[in-house]
Write a structure and sequence with these properties.
By secondary structure, the chain is α+β, with helices and mostly antiparallel strands. It contains 12 helices and 9 strands. The structure holds zinc ion. Zinc ion binds next to loops.
Length: 342
Amino acid sequence: MTTDIKEIISKLETIKKNFDNELSQTSENNLSEKLKIKYLGRKGELSSFFALMGKVSAQERPKLGQELNKLKIYFQGQIDKFTDASESKPKRIDFFDTSLPGLPVKIGTKHPLYQVLDEIKDIFISFGFTIETGPELETDYYNFEALNIPKYHPSRDLQDTFYISDDLVMRTHTSPVQIRTMESMEPPIRMIAPGKCYRKDALDATHSPIFHQVEGLCVDVGVTFADLKGLIEAFAKRLFGEDVKIRFRPSFFPFTEPSAEYDFSCVKCGGKGCNICKGTGWLEISGAGMVDPAVFNYVGYDSSKYTGYAFGMGVERIAMLKYQIPDIRHFYENDIRFLTQF
Ligand SMILES: [Zn+2]
């Protein structure tokens, strides 16, 4: 190999050009590794020139050293730049190990309230009831008036109702769906209306400003209070088991006459008395009764021909009894530790 410094430098320039060319055509990371070996390796393009260091004259040696080092640093820098840039690019996956175990996927579950609601729906569907729905933002007429709750009736207490305007309220019960259903069809009617209701209650262990109700209605020729009792009993046994007993207590609602509240025997102690039933052996569930003929007049049914019963129940209340949940707030806090138990 020549020891003429000019010739050497010209050769080095050619090597640099070749390097630049090859690098510009390199598209993959592992090829930049190859360039590194080719130009900077122990048997690479530059190494033979370093070997010339001992052969050139003492005056020329620093010049050659400088040139070689400059080029070495340049090659290294270019290769590093290329590698950094290609590493930030998404890499092609050349290999996938199909024997690796998969990552576990966490699957959500249906909210406990809606599990109970589904169960309630299934029971009534099996009894021949249909599911009806209505708006949560209701007019005064459907929420009160047509249910025989005229203006200034005590149960319209401002404390209880979210008024949106003089005429619009967030429905305080699912009973308006009864009216809407009766307006849209003729008897026989067997329906339940599940859904959200709204009342101005402060959130505590047993109250929530939003809660879920299931309203039921049956209208036909010859429907009696005995039918209502039979239905509630059959429902209670399907939901809580054959040993559950029911009882009715006289009560008052504007839209039913006669009206009753119905209780189930305690699902925990079976009637002996415990902390859940506060020692009484009974659990209050909700209200029911025979549809007041005044309500039939609002929807244009002939009250001398048809009779009907209506009933309600709180879904939270039933879910709390079913799963023995002590605090209604658990349903709304979405604490994963609570929800994953169902
Ligand atoms: Zn009890």
